[in-house]
Write a structure and sequence with these properties.
137 residues, 2 strands, elongated
């Protein structure tokens, strides 16, 4: 899969991980944080895979269009994600910090109850997805 086709996944993976964390919290206290950590690791991995296409040769911009509406007459019609070196650095930093925070929550707040840990993992992943999505368009 090319880097352009992977552009929606850094937003989709944390959203899916957030929902799975809520479901996992119903069965085990640690399941929510393990699922969240796995989702954040996968997000960081996808961002690193995309970065291999963005950073070479001084950097280039890649754009993923969510429909067949490509620029027409210099105007963009529709929704698109764009990745350039600055945006990729920001997204990778956000994903790495989100992963670090989930590991910290796992080690420091692991004694909390199932609903609290599930909500914490869910909200942290929603935050990471929103921060990445806000920078890509």
């Amino acid at each position: 899969m090319s880097g352009v086709a992977l552009l929606p996944f850094p937003v989709v993976i944390p959203l899916g991980g957030a929902l799975l964390s809520l479901l996992g919290a119903r069965f085990s206290r640690q399941a929510a944080l393990v699922i969240g950590t796995a989702a954040m690791t996968a997000t960081l991995g996808v961002l690193i895979a995309i970065a291999t296409d963005v950073y070479p040769d001084g950097g280039r911009a890649m754009t993923y269009f969510f429909s067949n509406e490509h620029p027409h007459g210099g105007h963009l019609l529709g929704i698109a994600f764009t990745a350039d070196p600055f945006r990729m650095t920001y997204a990778r930093l956000v994903a790495a910090l989100g992963l670090g925070l989930l590991v910290l929550v796992h080690s420091e707040l692991g004694h909390l109850g199932k609903p609290e840990l599930g909500a914490m993992a869910c909200l942290m992943q929603f935050l990471v997805a929103a921060l990445i999505a806000a920078r890509l368009p």
